[in-house]
Amino acid sequence: MSTIQWFPGHMAKARNQVQEKLKLVDIVLEIVDARIPISSQNPMLAEIIEHKPKIMILNKADLADPKQTEVWQAYFKQQGYASIAIDAQHKSQLPQINKVVRTVLKDKIQKQYDKGLKLAKVRAICIGIPNVGKSTILNRLVHKNIAKTGDRPGVTKNQQWLKVNEEFEVLDTPGILWPKFEDQTVGTKLALLGSIKDSIYADDDVALFALDYLKTHYAPRLLAAYKLNEADLDQDNPDLMLFLTKKLGFKEDYDQFAQRLILDIRKGRFGRLTFEDVVLATDTVGD
Ligand SMILES: Nc1nc2c(ncn2[C@@H]2O[C@H](COP(=O)(O)OP(=O)(O)OP(=O)(O)O)[C@@H](O)[C@H]2O)c(=O)[nH]1
Ligand SMILES: [Mg+2]
Questions:
Q1: Using a 6 Å CB cutoff, which residues line ligand 1?
Q2: 217 lies in the same domain as 83
Q3: What is the per-residue pLDDT across 134-188, written as a single tens digit (0 to 9) for each?
Q4: Where are any strands of DSSP class E within 130-227?
Q5: Residue 10 contacts by C-beta under 8 Å, 6 or more apart in sequence?
Q6: Which CATH number fits the domain that encloses residue 167?
Q7: What angle separates helix 254-266 from helix 203-217, to the nearest 10 degrees?
Q8: How far is 23 from 77, CA to CA, in rounded Å?
Q9: Could you report the per-residue pLDDT of 100-146, keeping only the tens digit for each?
Q10: At which of 172, 191, 221 does a domain end?
């Protein structure tokens, strides 16, 4: 039996708590990281949500490639989900959530009014993997810093109801990962963007992935940020990594460069980046 460090006991408990609370809510707000909209979805949560209405919230859109975000939203629409791309740091974008929730639930809400109720109450649960911004979104929605937030995974430890208004309550939940990544690059991407504790993944593996992705998808930005010549990119990735390690003054200390690259990506030094592509199912044929 192998021990799985990113699925400690509190996460199993958190998953069970989500399952229990699902009975009480009308709708699920699934928060994903707009830079990795698929890898930041938890397949285990998808299983327990089953047929509950769900809205996909692509958060940290301020850090993601805007063109890609548009394509991802079209993708989720094709999958049958309403989606919203937001930057939770700016509260001006948050009223969208309430609006979309009420649009998705309009039949249910109408029934409440038909029964003569003055208020049509809606309860939502906010779920997602660690560090995608669930608590930040909820604080913005309620205009108070009630939920604890922080730039590391595992900040929220317990569920907490937050009241947006008389008609809308949302449950904040701890971020949940799942026990086994079928695809190792999923784990690497989660580590790169801070949803898995930094200590669990080897920085140089994460940095090698990131370097390769930048080279392939955002080469001009990589050249500009580290003042490289195009020919420098002809080296294979481990050589390029050593080259950059020396160029940035870290001598032969790969790890220091790896940490620097990861930080530069997280801080937006390469501009807005998305680390996952999607091809839409119905690309028009013949025109
Ligand atoms: N740039 C940017 N940063 C954000 C955004 N939303 C949240 N953050 C930051 O991301 C970090 C994580 O936010 P939290 O709200 O604590 O994330 P969480 O999903 O509640 O995390 P857990 O409780 O660990 O599951 C914090 O440093 C936030 O300030 C956003 O839209 N854009
Ligand atoms: Mg939280």
A1: 59-60, 62-63, 87-89, 128, 130-136, 149-151, 153-156, 174-175
A2: no
A3: 999 999 999 999 999 999 998 998 999 999 999 999 999 999 998 888 899 999 9
A4: 160-165, 168-172
A5: 157, 174
A6: 3.40.50.300
A7: 60
A8: 25
A9: 999 999 999 999 999 999 999 999 999 999 999 999 999 999 999 99
A10: 172
